[in-house]
Design goal:
By secondary structure, the chain is mainly α. It contains 20 helices and 13 strands. Helices cover 45% and strands 10% of the residues. The chain binds one RNA strand through helix 4, strand 6, strand 8, strand 9 and helix 6.
RNA sequence: GUCCCCUUCGUCUAGAGGCCUAGGACAACUCCCUUUCACGGAGUAGACACCGAUUCGAAUUCGGUAGGGGACGCCA
């Protein structure tokens, strides 16, 4: 039987990098084993789940390239696959049926306490010694009594009885043998008073019905597994294999959250990171191989992935290393593909560049070694656009030097007989010629030329930049300088 | 408070009793290349949380301590 894994986000915002890593591991294992990867939407919290957020989550997964075999359609959000629907909000009747089964068996009961009452109980418990577990209500109504009350319009949640006091053992894929005492949790809610089921319940019903074989999820769910095991037993469903992944942490070793800065894949996309680099990086946050290999393509990750190398300790998300990894992936890209990502970013900054393949190829060849992210292209390419050329204030000193005018004139003269595009060597030859003919060297030589190319005395390396500028463009710029 | 999990260089990690005077990568630092930067190359520095036990021998096994994290919701 082939493996079936799922990623089950709740749509409350953009995809978090921790979530992305969970999705990735599930995806990798499914692909590695030739099984299915399923996307299920956990939108039972109607307060927080939004259509807009669902769209974001899906777009982020698509950007990462984690394609799913069953789930909701990336465009229409309609379910596809044999065990649908894949949105929990559309599976209410399925949950109702399952809840009824437990109710009939007496494994659950109706709890008529209100939020206020529960809050008061919790507050009291905290005051008494910080013990938070929700206690059983003083009176539990029989099914008939409860149904009569409900018929009168009273609201009640359905709770699962935790009566069987014993140790539950879990063979965790990441942590090995873990055991929980069942009195670690109190009677827990499976159906809210508005009829909407809650996470632990849906999760069990869906994983069982969707025939999920392995569940890789964040460590924060470890204690939920106890409740879920109780439900699996109550239904008589086989339990999947669980693996609880360590958390992704911020620099202060706390769970990565907003206050640490960028936490969503979307933000990393905006900052100019490549999906392959981000994937490669998060894959190595809590998983690794025995060899020294660190740069993985998507396919290499699939081939190399294995559950027994998942690390139980939390891992700090270090953007510096991500940056380095991004630069490696960036350089490995085909120039044509890379340009498809860079050019729109330049245009967004009002930078227009030549589009012929030969020029693009040359430009990327020269610039990409100094770029870590796609955003780094902006300062690199900015000097290319003639319309953006201007003589900056910090060039003023250069124009006070006596030799500057002579250098600029010699530069112009040299340009006139130069080819449309000079090579780096052409440029050096020309520059050396000026050094000899005008008789200046050092900054008196370099700075005026740099100003005549980029409008300021410091910045781009001319040997790289000049070959990317058309002769006409260079002449235009030096003319502007000579008018000063 | 209760329960659960975790603990190797600053960070990600390799390490499954002798291969470890603990390996790699990022970052840092030094030097080389380079008439700025970057890339590249060569180096330097830097860790087994602590205490006991088992063993001829422990980063690796066991126990305890400390520290960190997570959970304790009609959130997921």
């Amino acid at each position: 039987m082939s493996v079936r894994l799922r990623f089950a986000p709740s749509p409350t915002g953009h995809l978090h990098v921790g979530g992305a890593r969970t999705a990735l591991y599930n995806y990798l294992y499914a692909k590695k084993m030739g099984g299915q990867f399923i996307l299920r939407i956990e939108d039972t919290d109607v307060e927080r789940s939004t259509e807009a957020a669902l769209k974001m989550q899906i777009e982020d997964l698509v950007w990462l390239g984690l394609k799913w075999d069953e789930g909701v359609d990336p465009k229409t959000h309609e379910s596809f696959g044999p065990h649908g629907p894949y949105r929990q909000s559309l599976r209410k009747s399925i949950y109702q049926e399952h809840a009824q089964k437990l109710l009939q068996q007496g494994k659950t009961y109706y709890d008529f306490r209100t939020d206020e009452e529960l809050d008061a109980i919790k507050q009291q418990a905290e005051a008494d010694g910080g013990f938070h577990r929700t206690a059983r209500p003083e009176k539990i109504y029989s099914l008939e009594e409860a149904q009569a009350k409900l018929a009168k319009g009273e609201k009640a949640a359905v709770r699962f009885r935790v009566d069987d006091i014993r140790d539950y053992k879990l063979h965790d894929l990441v942590r090995g043998e873990v055991s929980f005492p069942s009195d670690m949790v109190g009677d827990f809610v499976i159906l809210r008073s508005n009829g909407m089921p809650v996470y632990n319940f849906c999760c069990v019903v869906d994983d069982a019905l969707m025939k999920i074989t392995h569940v890789l999820r964040a460590e924060e769910h470890l204690s939920n597994t106890l409740r879920q095991q109780m439900l699996y037993e109550a239904f008589g469903y086989p339990t999947p294999h669980f693996g609880h992944l360590s958390l992704v942490l911020g620099e202060d070793r706390q769970k990565l959250s907003k206050r640490h800065g960028a936490t969503s894949c979307h933000e990393y996309m905006e900052r100019g990171y490549l999906p392959d680099a981000l994937l490669n990086f998060i894959a190595l946050l809590g998983w690794g191989t025995t060899d020294d290999k660190e740069i993985f393509s998507r396919q290499e990750l699939i081939d190399a992935f294995s559950l027994d190398r998942l690390n139980p300790a939390g891992a700090v998300f270090d953007e510096t290393k991500l940056k380095w990894m991004n630069s490696i992936h960036l350089r490995a890209m085909e120039h044509k593909e890379l340009w498809k990502l860079i050019d729109p970013r330049l245009k967004a900054h009002g930078i227009e560049c030549p589009q012929d393949a030969e020029w693009v190829d040359r430009a990327l060849g020269l610039f990409k070694t100094s770029m870590e992210t796609l955003e780094d292209a902006i300062p690199r390419f900015q000097p290319i656009d003639d319309r953006l050329f201007s003589i900056k204030d910090d060039a003023a000193e250069v124009f006070t030097w006596e030799s500057t005018k002579k250098v600029l004139e010699a530069w112009k003269l040299g340009l006139e007989s130069a080819p449309d595009y000079m090579t780096g060597e052409d440029f050096e030859k020309l520059q050396n010629g000026i050094k000899d003919s005008v008789g200046v060297k050092g900054k008196n030589l370099f700075m005026p030329i740099r100003v005549a190319v980029i409008g300021q005395p410091h910045g781009a390396e001319l040997k790289i930049l000049v070959p990317l500028l058309h002769k006409k463009s260079l002449l235009n710029r030096v003319d502007q300088c000579l008018k000063k």
